[in-house]
């Protein structure tokens, strides 16, 4: 009943819109953001490509995904950030998928100095139950830790060949996510929307650099480092920190 | 033009009391082109239990999707017209209306409306054709009126049949298993069930938790609550394949044409799983114990086997605990409710359901 009064006030106005009424003409410009996945700089090919790992082993990636929260463009003049999306799930899980996925947004024309997002599900959403959202919403993609816990922020899964026998028979599975791991990623790269040509931005994430980068790596031949779903915090936190720190932004 | 009429339904909505309890599941996505109505559900229910759709009027949807078995059939592979054996195990239909990703073990139907179109013309299912099935419906004394009530005119076609069947299947909702009641604080697990719950959801991963150090059974990565499926496709290690082209049943790969999808099948929902034996796409495992043994072994090799399928090192008690937990997903009230209704419908239709 508590919504009755405001609805009584607002609905006559809503109900009397003419069919040909329009919102204000959109001055916003269509803007494309590419999400690109690579492995050691090469386009990521789920299952179909074989990749090397610093231990000398090789692997095939089965799944790479991460949530982004509060994806925003940063105006060059210091104005408030322009929100592109509150939450999105970026996922590669099929051999048929291209290494680059595209999202389009409408944004105000202007000069921007870069892009910012939260890696993971922001705490305010991470506290909410999936049943609160539509079944086909990105927070209902069955990426839950369990029935009473919340979202898995990122996953990397692969099958590794640890002996030179042609068998990719060692599963590697890294699932990460908690409020404590949530990170804000800011990438500076000036660009202008509008004018003669609006550029396309490409946000690249490299799986190898998440697994092994910045002089850090871990031994995938060690059984306790092959399946990490929260149990081996050292491995999980290491992967997460490297993932958060390796994004690059390019303007084309 | 003034849209005064838009106000009425919204006023009604505004007057609905807010529920204090959160919803059990995200709401069913009712397709805009097939909104559920009481008449549509009634028609779909009648069609579901009526063998009139099959070539010789002996096989109904319910011949394989039996309510007392949570809408599975208890056989390794489905048996259709004249007892012809199919190629795949009949999946249960518990909460199928909540699934919004493609259906069938191989995902060849985008939704329930499309799914309903397949069995009529499949030789080892209903063994006929849609024109023949529609003609039988049109010749009946009752269906014209039922279609008119459901869709506004007595016209009958395969699309309307599919729409009605989909509407009925969206009513197959289960939310009263022991698992649900424990979640709501209305019941408690036995010690064995609680251990199984902890194994299923990998509580051993929490170094600070009560189950720290417990093996993890890795179940919920694919069998994710609340419906215990993530609606995706995996190779769960049933068949060894050094070459991805050698799976006895390519499964998802036959639909996508992608060899890397060979040997992958849809992760089934586990609600009422104790009632839907035998298990797997080909019904190769007779019991839940065999299923747990399979996963405990780590499965057989193929390069596209799920990375989460690996040897689990569960002992006998832990395996028994997993089975005990899986039994808590049984919703007796769901089964009894739909079985009771089906008895009446089958009697009315004169169907032979075996």
From TrEMBL, chain A:
InterPro entries assigned: MbnP-like_dom
Superkingdom to which the source organism belongs: Bacteria
Domain Copper-binding protein MbnP-like stretches: 30-215
Pfam families, per the entry: MbnP
Protein name per its UniProtKB record: Copper-binding protein MbnP-like domain-containing protein
Source organism of the structure: Neolewinella litorea
UniProtKB/TrEMBL annotation, chain B:
Pfam families found in the cross-reference section: CCP_MauG
Note describing how the cofactor binds: Binds 2 heme groups.
Chain positions recorded as heme c 2 binding sites: 219, 222-223
Keyword hit for Oxidoreductase: yes
Pathway: One-carbon metabolism; methylamine degradation
Post-translational modification: Binds 2 heme groups per subunit.
Endpoints of the signal sequence: 1-20
Keywords, in A-Z order: Electron transport, Heme, Iron, Metal-binding, Oxidoreductase, Periplasm, Signal, Transport
Domain named Di-haem cytochrome c peroxidase: residues: 39-187
SUPFAM superfamilies linked to this entry: Cytochrome c
Molecular function in Gene Ontology: cytochrome-c peroxidase activity; electron transfer activity; heme binding; metal ion binding
PANTHER family (UniProt xref): BLL6722 PROTEIN, CYTOCHROME C PEROXIDASE-RELATED
The name this protein goes by in its record: Methylamine utilization protein MauG
Organism (species): Neolewinella litorea
């Amino acid at each position: 009943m508590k919504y009755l009064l405001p609805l009584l006030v607002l609905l006559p106005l809503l109900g009397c819109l003419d069919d040909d009424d329009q919102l204000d003409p959109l001055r916003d410009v269509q803007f494309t953001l590419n999400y690109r996945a690579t492995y050691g700089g090469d386009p990521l090919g789920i299952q179909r490509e074989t990749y090397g790992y610093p231990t000398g082993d090789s692997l095939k990636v089965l799944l790479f995904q991460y949530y982004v929260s509060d994806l925003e463009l940063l105006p060059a003049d210091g104005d408030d950030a322009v929100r592109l999306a509150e939450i999105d799930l970026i996922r590669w899980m099929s051999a048929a998928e291209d290494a680059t996925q595209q999202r389009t947004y409408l944004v105000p024309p202007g000069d921007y100095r870069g892009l910012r997002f939260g890696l993971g599900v922001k705490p305010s959403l991470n506290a909410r139950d999936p049943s609160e959202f539509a079944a086909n919403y990105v927070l209902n993609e069955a990426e839950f830790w369990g029935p009473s816990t919340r979202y898995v922020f990122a996953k990397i899964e692969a099958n590794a060949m640890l002996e030179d026998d042609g068998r990719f028979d060692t599963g590697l599975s890294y699932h990460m996510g908690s409020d404590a791991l949530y990170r804000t990623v800011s990438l500076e790269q000036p660009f202008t929307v509008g004018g003669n040509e609006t550029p396309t931005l490409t946000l690249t994430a490299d799986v190898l650099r998440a697994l092994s980068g910045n002089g850090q790596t871990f031994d995938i031949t060690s059984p306790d480092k092959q399946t990490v779903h929260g149990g081996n915090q050292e491995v999980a936190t290491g992967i997460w920190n490297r993932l958060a720190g390796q994004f690059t932004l390019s303007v084309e | 033009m003034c849209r005064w009429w838009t106000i009425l339904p919204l006023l009604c909505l505004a007057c609905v009391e807010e529920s204090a309890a959160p919803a059990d599941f995200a709401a069913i996505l009712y397709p805009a082109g097939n909104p559920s109505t009481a008449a549509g559900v009634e028609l779909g229910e009648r069609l579901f239990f009526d063998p009139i759709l099959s070539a010789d009027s002996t096989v109904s949807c319910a011949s394989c999707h039996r309510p007392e078995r949570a809408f599975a059939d208890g056989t390794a592979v489905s048996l259709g017209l004249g007892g012809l054996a199919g190629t795949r195990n009949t999946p249960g239909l518990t909460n199928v209306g909540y699934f919004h990703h493609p259906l069938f073990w191989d995902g060849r139907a985008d939704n329930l409306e499309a799914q309903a179109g397949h069995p009529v013309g499949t030789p080892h299912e209903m063994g006929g054709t849609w024109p023949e099935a529609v003609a039988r419906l049109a010749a009946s004394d009752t269906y014209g009126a039922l279609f008119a009530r459901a869709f506004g005119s007595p016209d009958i076609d395969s699309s309307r049949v599919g729409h009605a069947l989909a509407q009925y299947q969206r009513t197959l909702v289960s939310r009263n298993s022991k698992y649900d009641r424990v979640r709501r604080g209305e019941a408690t697990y036995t010690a064995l069930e609680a251990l199984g719950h902890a194994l299923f959801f990998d509580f051993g991963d929490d170094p600070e938790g009560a189950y720290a150090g417990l093996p993890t059974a890795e179940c919920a990565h694919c069998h994710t609550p609340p419906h215990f499926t993530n609606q995706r496709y995996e190779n769960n290690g049933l068949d060894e394949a050094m070459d991805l082209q050698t799976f006895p049943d390519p499964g998802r790969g036959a639909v996508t044409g992608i060899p890397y999808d060979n040997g992958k099948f849809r992760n089934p929902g586990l609600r009422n799983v104790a009632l839907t034996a035998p298990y797997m796409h080909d019904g190769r495992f007779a019991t839940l114990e065999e299923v747990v043994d399979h996963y405990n072994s780590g499965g057989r090799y193929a390069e596209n086997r799920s990375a989460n399928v690996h040897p689990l090192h569960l002992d006998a008690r832990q395996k028994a605990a997993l089975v005990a937990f899986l039994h808590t997903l049984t919703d007796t009230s769901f089964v009894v409710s739909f079985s009771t209704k089906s008895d009446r419908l089958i009697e009315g239709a004169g169907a032979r359901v075996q």
